[in-house]
Amino acid sequence: MNAPMNSLSRRQMLHTASCGFGYLAMSGMVGAATLDARPPRLRARAQRVIFLNMAGGPAQMDTFDYKPQVGKNPHGGSVAEFKRRGKSGLWVSELLPNIARHADKLCVLNAMTADTSIHAQSMLQLHTGDRLRPCPSMGAWVAYGLGTENQNLPGFISFNTAKPAEYSAAQLPPVFGGTPIGVNGEDMSRATISNIQGDHLPLSVKRRQLDLIQAMNHDHLKLRGDDAQLEGVIQTMELGFRMQASAPDLLDLSKESKATLERYRVGKNYAAGTCKGSDFGRQCLLARRFCEAGVRFIEITHGSWDQHTDHRRDLTANCATTDAPIAALLDDLDERGLLEDTLVVWGGEFGRPGLTPGKDKDQTGHQHRAFTFWLAGGGVKSGHVHGSTSENGEIPVDGNVHFRDLHATILHLLGLDHENLALVSGGRRIRLTGLQGGSIVKSILA
Predict the structure, then answer these.
(1) What CATH number has the domain spanning 33-444?
(2) Which of 185, 166, 52, 77 has its CA nearest to residue 119?
(3) Cα torsion for 151, 338, 156, 323, to the nearest 10°?
(4) How far apart are CA 141 and CA 391, in angstroms?
């Protein structure tokens, strides 16, 4: 016997109606604020961010911070060969020949610092500014401050993500949280946005179905007065419906040319040791497409840099996997006039100590006191190196940049004031740069 209509809960109705996108809104995108595009408070040099998350700790001394052997005693340093690249003469490893073509576009930060060498805590600090407590992710803050340029798409997308805390809205309205595409090593060729597609009903019928649900929501809202969560449900269900028209086409690479797929190395992985297949090339190409479509913050992840026992083998595989796709992304952004107002950020939660000849063979550890990030486009100097480290790369010598300073600088480039982009929750003032605050690295601004 069928249950009477009034025995169904609102959650059950939303879960079964309109291919589930209503339930998606209820479960993960509730919030009172909107994603309407908002002008920045300050002068903005960048309109959006692409964050290339090199999770696991890329070896800075074998990629961008050249440390040859000097003096009589062997010390930790580079095992990869380096060359000066471009007119700027930036040192770039021979393991990254394609990125090396873009040396004159890069702004290299060679004295980055984090507070801990514990992977999970440092990765959380990189994303949220806090290594212990849940706080809004960097992408969520950007979406909160600026909204989205395309009302049919979220403000923040996270590809090949691992932990929800890294793309969470936390204390912000959840509508600003990242929309994950590909989770925990899922095949990226099949990764999609859950609960926005379904062929069981024509779009016109889905619209009528949603209108009915929204009418009930509005009636319910009248009885409850100011209900931020319910208002958020109404807004985000509309976004879920609109996403049906845009997101599936953006995820479909079938119309991309064979040459483009080859440039990005779509579907090609160089798996070895810690380096696992993540179809990084597909992520980079999708990042370009979502960037063009107006998504404000896009994160893509290669989570294979945690190399300890076979440093040379795993480093070579990680570089081979990421080098050509990143170079293709920079090529396309530049050629399409997007790099000027798109800030590209490359880096991981910390770095690695260099190998000492004749000592550690092929084993490395964690290095959080001095490591490397690079930026490109979006108002930063090009062909520029900021900061330096000691001969063995263990400590910063000058130009030290903490994660808080990086966050402050990224927000500043987007026209957001890191000191006042904040909220109060549980009696505590929360912002991306934390209680201590950060300093804008003004010397890297173009």
Answers:
(1) 3.40.720
(2) 166
(3) 150
(4) 37
Q: What is the dihedral of CA 378, 379, 384, 387, to 10 degrees?
A: -100
Quote the radius of gyration of the chain (alpha carbons, Å): 23
pLDDT of residue 200: 66
Helices 403-413, 138-146: axis angle to 10 degrees equals: 20
Spans of all domains in the chain: 33-444
Torsion of CA 316, 119, 110, 74, to 10 degrees: -60
Q: Mark the ranges of the chain whose per-residue pLDDT is less than 50.
A: 1-32
Residue at token pair 């509508």: 175
* Beta bridge partners of residue 299, listed in sequence order: 51, 158
Q: Strand 179-183 relative to strand 388-389: parallel, antiparallel, unpaired?
A: unpaired
Each residue of 170-181: pLDDT tens digit? 988 888 889 899
Cβ neighbours around 382 below 10 Å, total: 18
Half-sphere exposure of 78 (CA within 13 A, CB side): 21
How are beta strands 401-402 and 396-398 bridged, if at all? unpaired
**Cα 446 to Cα 411: distance, rounded to the nearest angstrom:** 15
DSSP notation for 355-422: BPTTTSTT----B-SSEEEEEESTTB-SSEEE-EE-TTSSSEEE--EEHHHHHHHHHHHTT--TTTSE
What's the residue count for the chain?
Answer: 446
The pair of three-digit structure tokens given for residue 157, joined into one six-digit string? 């997308």
DSSP, collapsed to helix, strand or coil, labels residue 88 as coil
CA–CA distance, 135 with 50 (Å, rounded to integer)? 20
CA angle 369, 348, 48 (to 5 degrees): 125
